[in-house]
Amino acid sequence: PSLRLDDLITDGSVVKIDVEGAEVSVLKSGMGALTSGLVDLAVVEVTDKTIGEVIGILDGAGFDCFYEGQSAPITDISQLDRGIGNILCLRRESPLYQQIITRTAAV
User: Any bridge partners for residue 90, and if so which?
Assistant: First the structure.
């Protein structure tokens, strides 16, 4: 039996998703938690085939997604190295958002 992400997240959480191509299904199963503010930060391993849909789902849930070390949200999905990689996604309304962006820009 599988669990929905919404069933697992009942309190403030940081989420790491590494599910070998099933990230879209996992994210869809957690829309309640993602849109309710229970998650401020998510790291999602994506592939060149899933990155566009993952970013779209998270954008709709109020998140901006970033490539490692970048301070501007992803606008060009073709920049994904080696066809697979992690993206950092921050809830736009989170108090962490500005802190992390400011630190990343300073590096």
Answer: 41, 64
Res. 80: pLDDT tops 80: no
Q: Would strands 13-17 and 63-67 be described as parallel, antiparallel, or unpaired?
A: unpaired
- What tokens appear for 80 in the block? 């994904």
DSSP 8-state symbol, 76:
-
- What pTM was estimated for this model as a whole? 0.89
Amino acid residing at 59: D
Looking at this protein, which amino acid is placed at residue 36? Answer: S
How far apart CA 105 and CA 107 sit, in angstroms, is: 6
For residues 4 and 72, give the distance between their C-alpha atoms in angstroms, rounded to a whole number.
Answer: 31
CA dist 86 and 69 (Å) reads: 11
Tell me the CA distances in angstroms from 90 to 1, 3, 57, 95, one per residue in order.
30, 24, 13, 10
